[in-house]
Write the structure tokens for this entry.
Amino acid sequence: MRGPLSQDQLEQFVERGWTLLEGAFPASVAGAVRGELGRRIGVDLERPEEWIQARVWLKELLSEPPFTDALTDRFASAVDQLVGPGRWKMTPVMGWWPVTFPGFDGPGYGDDWHIEGDWFRHHVSSGDQAVLNLFCFSAIEPGGGGTLLVEGSHHLAATLLWEAEPDGLESDDFDGPLTAALEERGWPGVVEVTCEEGDVVLAHPLLFHASNPNHGSRPRVMAQPAFSMTEPMRTEGDGLFPVEVPLARSRPSGAQGR
Ligand SMILES: O=C(O)CCC(=O)C(=O)O
């Protein structure tokens, strides 16, 4: 299916569990969001003298411009390529907002490896979160607090999930087994997100990830709205979309799914 993601990017999403959609929304929207968000949290994001905490986390979904201006046709077309057109719904919301600031030693966050989705019980067919979207409202340089991702961890998570069927798993049930499996392997594939303002990280919903202290030079502004599928994920058959391929590949022979 044609769209903004190349074939290589679609393969990267399947194999590594994520890809970067560059220029998903205009830099002018990112700038307007930083300005308005700064007013809401009471911190001018352009004035280092006002950066007095390592993190301010606005746990709100915002449903008006400029926040929703980041939900562009380009973003929607890329998600269509990953999950299938007409199989998910883009609701007009943007949030939450973990804003992190540079200039702090040992800030009290990070080391919070998790699978997204504490609002539903996970099954292999769950479509509660089609894709894990990280909207970059600021450029993120190396060391600048970009989310940590474990490439390939979605394959491990999918295998765990199959083993747990038909009961399924809560999102925090993944943490112990995935940490142990990755510990045993020496944590291969850990990368940190770097991006330009206006990019969106598109990750498999089962990708293990964590926050990361900001030791860069500017506030990191990110949001991760969750959009759900309108039908279950498929785990067998022809014509699977990239989000479904890792689920099908880790399917044990004879499994009934759910
Ligand atoms: O702040 C980050 O980079 C990651 C945040 C996250 O994954 C979460 O809040 O679930």
Q: What stands out?
A: The beta strands are 18-21, 55-58, 97-100, 132-136, 148-150, 190-192, 200-203, 209-210, 222-223.
